[in-house]
Amino acid sequence: MQDQIDTRLMLQAYEKITTHGEEVPGDIDKMHRLEGVTAFSDFDGYTLYLQDAEVKLQTGFHNTYKLDYDTNRALDNFIRKLKHIVSSYD
């Protein structure tokens, strides 16, 4: 798997998680978790974060993003989770 994720998938997953997920306590206000993926934003809402136990994704302006993961398998599983969330929650 390449380090390429569709920006639309990221934004749709973020919206589904914050809408349908449970609010979780943390250092950051309004963190939500759904299907093992946590979503939150920075204080001004311009940078969005999605993460699970093995992958961290940060996305910002102009469809730029940064991925942090150890194995391709972890990234593949993370992308599958995002696709599942987007297709399963309305």
TrEMBL record:
<protein>
    <submittedName>
        <fullName>DUF3081 domain-containing protein</fullName>
    </submittedName>
</protein>
<dbReference type="InterPro" id="IPR021432">
    <property type="entry name" value="DUF3081"/>
</dbReference>
<dbReference type="Pfam" id="PF11280">
    <property type="entry name" value="DUF3081"/>
</dbReference>
